[in-house]
Amino acid sequence: MENKYDKISLNLSFSDKENYDPKAASKGNAFLNFLKLYFRGFLMKIGIHKKLVYSNLSLRWFYSFRDYWAEQLQGRPIFPHDFYFLLCHFRTKYQDLEIGNEKDPDDFLKAWCDDRNVYSLFSYVFKTALQPLTIYKFRKYIKKNAIVCEYGCGIAPISQGLVKYFSHKHLKIHCADIPNVLLHYADWKLKNCDFVKTTKINPSDCSPLQDNYDIIFLLAVLEHLPSPLAVVQHLYQRLKLNGVLIFNYLKSEGTGLDTKAGVEQRSAVLKWIKEHFRVLEGDFDSDGETMVVRKSI
Asked: Which domains does the chain have, with CATH numbers?
């Protein structure tokens, strides 16, 4: 990566993590995980957590990103004030980013791999720092020995949460996304977890998964896909009987990195899910609400 702070050229090299260690499953101490989870939850509930992040008194999230930026991407060392400056700077470039021909896999991938999309990396890293417990509200669905897929994972906030707070559940975790800087960061963050594997999805492949899963997370993904209905039908096939799909489908105008197909197929996708799953949480008439549905037929 050529890095002059505000001018970058990404050259990403992914590690080979497309398989689990055959004997691997997450391992951790349930009591310690419980303490970490509920202590963090307590800080968030009383409003202290965000204050610590905003005031730079809690910077573990930044140190991790700094190491990735400097060591993995070989960029110049940065400090917190550099991070905030670059977050705003890259935002101004990102707003002009558009997918050319979304039906052309090369154009689709080119847009998502555009250097301007590095804003998404900064944005999601900071958002996850502020809201580290995305996984908390879904905790009752995380059963022991579950195989979990985070599809369209981005920087994999769900998988990171599972590794940090639910390692005692003996999980296997699969992160899947197109090969861009977001997946590259997730791949780096989870590189030492032999119970996690990553899959680089070709945008033209609507059926890239081979495993069967107990839970699939599909969050902030459907509005970005060139073939959302085909992807949902594929994920249905990859869920075990009584498996759980946790998804949302944000309403969009089909601009930027959202697709026209994401707009046009939204009603058909929601109708198909309604016909093939049983609702556990959420409302199909909501505007992008996160829903939990179970495969029962």
From this structure: 53-129 (no CATH), 132-295 (3.40.50.150)
What are the tokens at 22? Answer: 């055959």
Q: Which two three-digit tokens encode residue 173? A: 């975790």
Q: What are 206-228's pLDDT values in tens digits?
A: 999 999 999 999 999 999 999 99
Is the pTM higher than 0.85? The answer reads: yes
